[in-house]
From TrEMBL:
It comes from Microthlaspi erraticum. It is found in: Cytoplasm, Cytoskeleton, Spindle pole. Keywords: ATP-binding, Cytoplasm, Cytoskeleton, Isomerase, Microtubule, Nucleotide-binding. Residues 90-107 have a biased composition (Basic and acidic residues). Residues 90-118 are annotated as: Disordered. The keyword Cytoplasm applies. This is AAA+ ATPase domain-containing protein. One of its GO terms (molecular function) is ATP hydrolysis activity. One of its GO terms (cellular component) is spindle pole.
Length: 447
């Protein structure tokens, strides 16, 4: 059976010239390539020889990549690109007898893995982003390799952190909604003087919920979320750290609207020089590049937000503080927030003795959200320890399906957990309050 004719379209390495070969089979294509390369009448100079060598390599790689396309039922045209894969060339538009166009555009097979997750947009107004390729058209393979390393820090899927699951922090949540969520929901309002804040700083004691707030932003907004730490952008190779910063912001613009979350930003851009500080040249270049890229965000209308978190806000460089326009305190939980945490983590079960939530709230002054979780875990361990002690005293091995149930948490378990757990961040709370008074953002109460 005769094979269908195939059109192969290849380009030279700089895409300067396109040559099409029409042959009946793969063997004919090989013969044509040999004729093109080795016949002396085709080689009139060194420049032309180099061009033909590049063409030969492109077609050879194409045939090796997909040799079965030569036996397809319909003619097709394929262009090979070394960096970005194989792309379909536009087909000639055909017309029906009535003059209408019959050309149907097929959806692009290249999808954005970031969008494959089940990110839940707000029900009131956030539209889904159109699907894009994973990477923008970078100029070099080296830059693309850096982008691939950063792509590991893109949150794929839904972090599933809702605003209502974060107890307390009403001021921080309201400011974040105003700075990030509302400009995405109602972009027509945020222009000119009301253009969105592109830099937001979350500061406060460790364990108070800064990372949870950032994940809530990723959950509630239909944005691409870059979860970046110092290890993501610091490289041992000279010059790569600055390139990583540039590529990071290029990726963020490509996937806009997007959020870059810089966790522990004080490890990346602490104060530069001065007062006997010694700093490596590579560190200065990294900080300078980050400042330049953040300046660039202010000059465009692209919805790219930088959300930074730190436990040491007074260590940040003054130039970075200026670019982080909104500085939001994430404080230790107040009594109402602590009560909500205890009721969520240690709910009273029907038929069991009620747990003393009032005592917990009173005795947990100065505890962070992380400390409260540790306290509740310690209380839940007490009945498990009693059960394990009984099992360990038994000489015979108890089958897994016959293991006894763990008993309920008792009020005395709460007392023991309180005596075994200490707050971890209350001693420096006044420093955060002072920084908040000097630099923080507040929402004034309505008159």
């Amino acid at each position: 059976m005769a094979l269908q004719k195939q059109t192969l379209v290849a380009t030279s390495s700089n895409h300067a010239e396109i040559i099409a070969l029409h042959e009946a089979s793969r063997e004919c294509v090989w013969l044509s390539l040999q004729e093109l390369l080795f016949n002396p009448r085709h080689r009139s100079g060194e420049e032309k020889t180099v061009r033909y060598l590049s063409l030969f390599s492109s077609l050879l790689l194409l045939l090796w990549r997909d040799p079965l396309t030569m036996a397809t039922d319909e003619p097709s045209q394929t262009r090979w690109s070394f960096l970005f894969g194989r792309k379909k060339l536009p087909e000639e538009e055909s017309h029906n007898e009535d003059g209408s166009s019959s050309n149907k555009e097929e959806p692009s097979p290249v999808t954005n893995p970031v969008q494959e997750g089940n990110n839940t947009a707000l029900a009131n107004g956030i539209r889904e982003k159109p699907k894009k390729s994973m990477f923008p058209p970078f100029e070099s393979a080296e830059t693309r390799a850096l982008a691939e390393s950063l792509s590991r820090d893109i949150i794929r899927g839904n972090p599933n952190i809702k605003w209502e699951s974060i107890k307390g922090l009403e001021n921080a949540k309201r400011l974040l909604k105003e700075a990030v969520v509302m400009p995405i929901k109602y972009p027509s309002y945020f222009n000119g003087l009301l253009s969105p804040w592109k830099g937001i700083l979350l500061f406060g004691p460790p364990g108070t919920g800064k990372t949870m707030l950032a994940k809530a932003v990723a959950t509630e907004c239909n944005t691409t979320f870059f979860n970046i730490s110092a290890s993501s952008v610091v490289s041992k190779w000279r010059g790569d750290s600055e390139k990583l910063i540039r590529v990071l912001f290029d990726l963020a613009r490509h996937h806009a609207p997007s959020t870059i979350f810089l966790d522990e930003i004080d490890a990346i851009i602490s104060q530069r020089g001065g007062e006997g500080r010694s700093e490596h040249e590579a560190s200065r270049r990294l900080k300078t590049e980050l400042l330049i890229q953040m300046d660039g965000l202010q000059k465009t209308n692209e919805l790219v937000f930088v959300l930074a978190a730190t436990n040491l806000p007074w260590e940040l460089d003054a130039a970075m503080l200026r670019r982080l326009e909104k500085r939001i305190l994430v404080p230790l939980p107040d009594p109402e927030a602590r009560r909500g945490m205890f009721e969520m983590l240690l709910p009273s079960q029907p038929g069991d003795e009620p747990l003393p939530h009032d005592v917990l709230v009173e005795k947990s002054e100065g505890y962070s959200g992380s400390d409260i979780r540790i306290l509740c875990k310690e209380a839940a361990m007490q009945p498990l320890r009693r059960t394990l002690a009984v099992l360990e005293d038994t000489e015979e091995l108890v089958p897994e399906d016959e293991l006894p149930e763990v008993g309920p948490i008792l009020p005395q378990d709460i007392d023991r957990a309180l005596s075994n757990t200490r707050p971890s961040a209350h001693l420096h709370a006044h420093l955060y309050d002072k920084f908040n008074d000097d630099y923080g953002s507040q929402i004034l109460k309505e008159l």
